[in-house]
Amino acid sequence: MQQVRHPDYMEILKLNDEELHRRLAFFEVTEEDVARLTGLKSFAERWTHDITEGLYELIMGQPESRAFFPDQATLARVKKLQNAYFLGLFSGKYDLNYVRDRLRVGMAHERIGMPPKLYLGAYRRYLALIHARLLEHFKGNASEAAKALESIRKVIFFDMALAIDTYIAAYLETMTRHQAAIRELSTPVIKVHDRILLLPIVGTVDTQRAHQIMDTVLLQVVEQQAKVMILDIAGVPVVDTKVADHILKTTAAVQLLGAQTILTGISASVARTVVQLGLEITRMYTRSKLSEGIELALTIVGKKITSKQDHTGGERN
Amino acid sequence: MISPSGNAQDSTQTWEIRIDKEADIVAVRQQVRELAKELRFDQFAVAALTTAASELSRNVWVHAQKGVARVSVVWNGRKVGVELELVDQGPGIANLERALAGGFSTSKSLGLGLSGTKRLVDEFHIESEPGRGTKVVIRKWKKEF
Amino acid sequence: MAGPIPILKIGPTLLATIQLELHDTVVDSFQTDVLEEIEKTGASGLIIDISALETVDSYVARMLANTAKMAKLMGTETVIVGMRPEVAATLVRMGYFMEGITTALSLEEGLQLQRQRSDAGDTE
After folding, report:
1. What tens digit of pLDDT does each residue of A209-250 get?
2. Hey, which bits of chain A come out as E strands?
3. Number of neighbours of residue A315 by Cβ within 10 angstroms
């Protein structure tokens, strides 16, 4: 079996050539900017070290951001990467490889848990440091320096957008994982007794939830080798044809596995609706009260609840 | 004529399987199953996809004796999915609407089971004309939560 | 016994365990073998274990139902055991309810069912 590529942020963010050009256009990165930036390569090489030091002065000077760089080795490595990052701004090649590279930077920061505020604050200082050096470089020619700064600013903002996108993509992934947990919790299958399971369904049942209910119920029936599955629908506010269909399918599937279903919590209005709609639920056990369902389930597995006083011959201690 | 949904991006990985003997149904099934598992679909989704693949490729075998299945990974921007396309030059389906509406045929032979298969997947597209063959495309997306 | 699906005898019951991908030649020999074994041994019960089947499409479902019907004509009751949860879900979602066949969660339960049935039968 050939290797399958797993989704990466490029795909999630739909970063293809089209999107790339759309972004470059919105950030107004022109041919002129590209030429100006490549023309500043020597400036970049001359000052990258300095600018990086200046940036980390801020980062290490604030306790919150300092915490991310606990030792010299980490700091040294990160500064090296920062230099490479700076030089990358002047590469003149703002293509998908450039984008992929920048995304990795964003991902790395997100992964270590650096909040966007620190990330953006650092970028601000970065631009200030670059501005100061540019003024020196253009020997006081403020308008040339301003043009250069503007070109650099465009690419830096382009990069920041990518960084923020990776934060968002990462948060979305976390959210979907939490959603999964919530869905699981909303289908609590309870073991009432040996081989008797109960699922109280509470709240509205839409198609997606119904799907999940069937899957969970069937998994539990097999895992617990249940003989009886009680589905209590007293907590379902509306039982219309669709909901009834979902419930019927679930009970049919449980029966297909070889277990019995008992449907309980059938209110007067549900009973009326079901018959009026002509729905077929006569082939399964149904009861109006959950307690009756439990008693029936016990009967099916060959047990029953008796009162202690029924035992003649006194109690055992 | 219905064409496949426009928002699915070009698939990046495709496996092609010729169907000209009964054992090929198993081959298509296995390819779909392996792919769905590798993409980490849950067991219910794997079963649904594999069963749909089995039904559809059996249709090709039974009605056309010859056809092609193409299994691909697809993206729709946020979710990953599996796409299966089946093309044959068989007799085609005369009454598509009825074939799609009906339940399973209880008779021994011509049970197309298309309506049942449709319920197992997220997207189902079919083009068929008597004498012109049949093309079916199905897609199932991995549930993100 | 010719085919690849093993059929064992446990008391008055035959146990067939399906462990492969089913396609027509396997299916044909399975049905033939089962019926021949019933004839040969006079088994009153047949248990088909499908716990290894990850996929049961309408063809296989029909085959199982037909096998049970054929066995019944010979006086043998069938119980299908070990259906996987995803198989049950898929069949029901397709709308294929497999009417008229008896299922049980496990081999043990299937045997118990057969015993109950034959006990009931003895009183006739």
Report:
1. 899 999 999 999 999 999 999 999 999 988 888 888 888 899
2. 190-193, 196-202, 228-235, 260-264, 285-286
3. 7
What ipTM is given for this predicted complex? 0.90
Res A275: pLDDT = 81
∠ CA A282-A283-A287, nearest 5°, is 60
Is the pTM of the predicted complex or chain greater than 0.80?
no
- Contact criterion met (CB < 8 Å) for B75 and A7: yes
Interface check for C58 against chain B (CB to CB < 8 A): the answer is yes
C94 class by beta-carbon count within 10 Å (0-12 exposed, 13-18 middle, 19+ buried): buried
Instruction: Answer whether residue A1 shows pLDDT above 50.
Output: no
Q: What is the pLDDT of residue C123?
A: 46
Domain total of chain B: 1
Q: Residue B9: its pLDDT value, please? A: 42
Beta carbons of A179 and B145 less than 8 Å apart: yes
pLDDT of the residue at C121? 64
Average pLDDT over residues A267-283: 77
Find the mean pLDDT for residues B77-105: 82
Is residue B1 situated within a structural domain?
Answer: no
Domains recognised in chain C with CATH numbers:
7-122 (3.30.750.24)
Query: What pLDDT, on the 0 to 100 scale, is given for residue B12?
Result: 59
Number of alpha carbons in the 13 Å side-chain half-sphere of residue A138: 17
Q: Exposed, middle or buried by CB within 10 Å (0-12, 13-18, 19+), for B106?
A: exposed
Domains assigned to chain A: 9-183 (1.10.490.10), 190-304 (3.30.750.24)
Tell me which DSSP letter residue A227 carries: S
Q: How far is C99 from B57, CA to CA, in rounded Å?
A: 25
- Tell me which residue range forms the domain holding B134: 13-141
Q: Is there a contact between B145 and A14 if contact means CB atoms under 8 Å apart?
A: no
Question: Distance from A179 to chain B by nearest Cα, in Å?
Answer: 6
Q: Is residue B32 part of a domain?
A: yes
Report the alpha-carbon angle C57-C60-C61, nearest 5. 80
The rounded percent of chain A whose pLDDT value lies above 90 is 46
Question: Is residue B40 domain-resident?
Answer: yes
CB A86 within 8 A of CB A50: no
3-class DSSP assignment, residue B16 = strand
Q: Is B30 left (phi over 0), alpha (psi -120 to 50) or beta?
A: alpha
Alpha-carbon gap, residue C68 to C74, rounded angstroms? 10
Longest dimension (CA), chain B: 43
What is the average per-residue pLDDT within B27-34?
Answer: 95
In chain C, residues with a C-beta closer than 8 Å to the C-beta of A219 are 85
Neighbours of chain C (3+ CB pairs under 8 A): A, B
In a domain, B122, yes or no: yes
